[in-house]
Amino acid sequence: MVHGKYGGVLKQNGFKVSAEDSADVKIVFHLAKFFVVEDNMYNGEFELRVEAFDKSGKNIWIGTTKGSSSRFGRSLKPQNYNETFPMLCLMPFRHYLRNKVSYPP
């Protein structure tokens, strides 16, 4: 789920996305934190480390983005967890791309 969504967000932000090893830049995502805790609300936390490598494999950029989400829902309903995760992952990633990433470095 997460992998496919990020490719779409990259395309929406002007990146040419390819699964080929010959790409100019390889972007690697490291999921550091990804969970939802239910109390009165569904509260989620997310942390993603992003690395960019050039064709030679040299690390040319590294950054971290974090996000949180809180939403109301009936207790112990899988649908509430499923709705929290996409918001949790994509919103901070979209914000990060729009505000911090520039290529070439």
Overview of this structure, please?
The protein is an alpha+beta fold. The protein has a single domain, classed as Bacterial Protein-export protein SecB, CATH 3.10.420.10. Helices cover 32% and strands 36% of the residues. The protein has helices at residues 2-12, 78-100, and strands spanning 26-38, 42-53, 59-71. A 3-stranded antiparallel β-sheet has the order 1-2-3. Helix 1 packs parallel to helix 2. The longest helix has 23 residues, at 78-100. It is elongated. The model has no long low-confidence stretch (mean pLDDT 76).
Quick overview of this protein structure:
The chain has 105 residues and is of the alpha+beta class.
Helix and strand topology:
Blueprint: H1 2-12, E1 26-38, E2 42-53, E3 59-71, H2 78-100
Helix pairs in contact: 1-2
